[in-house]
Write a structure and sequence with these properties.
By secondary structure, the protein is of the alpha+beta class. The chain has eleven helices and 20 strands. The strands form six sheets. The protein has a six-stranded antiparallel sheet.
Amino acid sequence: MYYKGAVEGAANTESGSRIFVYEVVGLRQNEETEQTNYQIRNSGSVFIRVPYNRMNQEMRRITRLGGRIVSIQPLGRLQQVNGKAISGVANSSAASPTAVAKEPAQEGNGNATLVNPGNKTEVKGLAESPTEPQSKKKDPKGNTMTQAKAKAQEVPVNLYRPNAPFIGKCISNEPLVKEGGIGIVQHIKFDLTGGNLRYVEGQSIGIIPPGVDKNGKPEKLRLYSIASTRHGDDLDDKTVSLCVRQLEYKHPETGETVYGVCSTYLCHLQPGDEVKITGPVGKEMLLPPEEDANIIMMATGTGIAPMRAYLLRMFKEEERAINPDYQFRGFAWLIFGIPTTPNILYKEELEEIQAKYPDNFRLTYAISREQKNPQGGRMYIQDRVAEHAEELWNLIKNEKTHTYICGLRGMEDGIDAALSAVATKEGVNWSEYQKELKKAGRWHVETY
């Protein structure tokens, strides 16, 4: 994917200076990043064009914003597709800020890229290495069966870009917060008829709101996790759905209430309204192809969006009927953090799945303003993780288990603390073990 960064203006004049593209991950959301044109998302990559004479300055800026430079490459090395410059698939390991990335794989409009299997490494400790292959069986080419399945799964990326978005239409815009709840959260469904916008569970799309920003420039896109399966809520491959909370906060200096530009726009769409859509993007949150996998899901608020997509794909009868090659028979556990009972998004769907599949799906709520943790404070998601730490740890050690975390940035520290405590009892360093889980492609995080 390719995003125009905050230095776009300086980079437009290429005469007399070389242009480089920084691939950056981990930019955190804070007051300063609110003023940038970057799309801030912890698990995704942002691509920023930088002229040679600003490279050091931009490196310092990215570091200050909590980002990490994954690769740097000359603009001239970018592939050309249909006359448009694009970037390649992100490198799997961090590069030195002065290094030049390898030639990117071609990723053009309508061309899918492949899921890369996790690297194989070993970690010492009482827990088995999470990067041990899940199956020793080999296909005729010598790949493990797990790898062969992963390579067969094509993932569409950047079928529509900011300079040529898909124009979709709002079909419906339904409130998800019940009476007495906090804030505004909407389930919004868009019509994709007439386009080629395909996606899979765990990906995101970009929305470009109308109008201009405070500098008089067109608004930049914002990313939102997809809340529907690849077939859409209507199972006709013609829709995509989002779960959107209207951003609202107090200005730190004036005390004035500020509303998010794009979230407010989306939450007030009417059926028939046209919307500029880009993407899809993202490979961090994809489900494994194995039907007997264990899926641990930890979500707060609208972080439920990808989890809903997973659960519908795994358990919805109509969805299973049109997916003969994927019939989930593993175990899924959702730990969902919300402030009040009326804020339990998709409550009826979740509890229906729990009732129909009690042996395959477990649902645990952390309702912060209604439930108390053992210390008498509010019950947050990390408190539930601590409460069930032994069970979660035993699941995580299973090579068939994948863990997904989605929601507000900051939830990870409490989760790590709870799991670290239980891992330490077995002499395992959680931080190191988690790194191996990530390398194995079994630990997936998307926070914002």
